Amino acid sequence: MSDAVQPTAAEVRAAAEAVKTALDRHLAAVEQRSGEDDPAVYEAFNHLAAAAEAYDELLYDRYDEVTPFEIPGAEDTMPPYTGPEEPNALSVLIRRDYAVAEPQRLLAQARRVATADDDEGPAVDAASTVHGALGILFGEFEPDEIASRHKEFGLEEGDSTLWVTAADTPPEAGEWLEAPFEQADPQRVVCRFDVSAVFDDEIGDDLDDDDLGDPMHTVRDDDLDTDLDEELVDEDEDLEPLDADR
Prior knowledge:
The protein contains eight helices and three strands; from the N terminus they run ααβααααββαα. With about 250 residues, it is α+β, with helices and mostly antiparallel strands. It is flat, with a radius of gyration of 25 Å. The C terminus is likely disordered.
C-alpha cells in the first residue's frame, strides 16, 4: 500500500478508541438485557463487530499487524429467531451462483438437447445464444443436476446458500410467484447452509496440505478431471436427459 492511502497513526488510535467505546456499549447492553433475544444486545454486538473490523484493517494497513481475536461481522450472523416454535409450514430458499466459463460448451450441450427434443425447430434456434441455451438446459434438467454436473454445461460454481424458513400457515397457491424472495424474513430462518470459496481460503490459511484429510469433505465432480474435448461433448453418455415424469 502506498503512503498516499496509508492511514495515519491518529486514525488508528481513533479506531482503537471506537472499539473501546463499542465494548462498553456491548457490556452495558448485556448487563441490562431484557431477554434472550434482546434487540439492544444484537445491535450492540453488530456495532462492536463493525468497530473491531475497522480497527483491524487500519492496524494492518498502518503497522502490518493484526489483532489476536476475531469478532464475526453483522453480515456473517443471523438475527434472533422470532418464528413459531413448532412451524406449521416451511419455505426453502435456494440461491446458487454460476459463471459462464465455457460458452461454446454451454451452446453445444443446449443444441444437443434441443435437437433431440425439437428436430430443427425453434428450440434449436434458441440454442444459438447463451441466453437461449441457459433456458433450454435449466428447462430440461433439475437445478440439483445442474449443480452436480455444472462443468459439463460450461459453468463454474460461485457461492450458494440454502435457507429453511418457518411459516405459520402455507401460502395460497400462486400468492408469491411474482416476487418469490421479497418476503424472506431472516428472523424466521430455522437453519441455513452456505457454500463459498471464502471458507476454503480460510481453511487453507490454517492447514498444511497434510492436514486436509477432512472426514466431512465430500468428493464432488469438480474435484475430478472432467475436461471434455469437442468429440465427447457430442456423445450421448455426456448427458442423460431426465425422464418426462420427473
